[in-house]
Amino acid sequence: MTDLSIGQHVAEQIQHPPSPQADIQPNAVIGAEILIEQLYKFYGDVKVLEDLDLHIQPGEFLAIVGRSGCGKSTLLRLIADLEQPSYGEIKFKSARHLREGITSDDIRVMFQDPRLLPWRSIEQNVQLGLHKDAHAQATALLEKVGLKEKAPLWPAQLSGGQRQRTALARALSHQPRVLLLDEPLGALDALTRLEMQNLIEKLWREQGFTAVLVTHDVSEAVQLADRIILLDKGHIARQFQVNLPRPREKNLNFAELEQQVLNAVLAT
């Protein structure tokens, strides 16, 4: 296939995205379905989100990109119930089809700052908010993120990447149906960032939660997401389906899609 035909093929995928492939979905989906309808958010006279509609599938990995101030983090905080909409609705549906609904206990957020308690050990931070009978599960997650040997240490004794691994283990120890990621890797060096991307993807595939990532890094969005939405002035300006096999390689198809998303961001 020539370079031109490859570019045309990727463009066709974006314009007419096929259904998500089975090999890019988590092994067992427990994530919540999220339905956002006619969402508005105002801060005084400033309109941040306007008439936004978005349907996130159970177990989907969604990335949100856009320029600073376009409403990315505001949308994430609204989904997390950290703020209330001015108008509109955000509804959740359990992928397990259980009678009980999704509550705030089913949603966890990872921020750019790991927000660990400095007076508690790494293991105690991961166990925070858990019943004693779930402490073993938290310890097992520390092993999954490669920090089993660091369990008795204090947060100040870890590197930035290790603190974010701790924050990830703490979030997942609660077995969330929804994991919200607000630029959690933005302050990490390039190599550590790649390692964390691989770790987040691995645990998403294992646990099957719904993931929503806010990022300024278009390459990171293409690396992790099933779908990318571009926000502009409170609206969804574009959507891109990422139909690349996992684990993803930064080949010509990857680079072509990354460039198209970047061009769309720059055009806003």
From TrEMBL:
InterPro entries: AAA+_ATPase, ABC_transporter-like_ATP-bd, ABC_transporter_ATP-bind, P-loop_NTPase. GO terms for molecular function: ATP binding; ATP hydrolysis activity. Gene3D superfamilies: P-loop containing nucleotide triphosphate hydrolases. PROSITE patterns: ABC_TRANSPORTER_2 (PS50893). PANTHER family: ALIPHATIC SULFONATES IMPORT ATP-BINDING PROTEIN SSUB, TAURINE IMPORT ATP-BINDING PROTEIN-RELATED. Belongs to the ABC transporter superfamily. This is Aliphatic sulfonates import ATP-binding protein SsuB. It comes from Acinetobacter tandoii DSM 14970 = CIP 107469. The lineage of its organism: Bacteria, Pseudomonadati, Pseudomonadota, Gammaproteobacteria, Moraxellales.
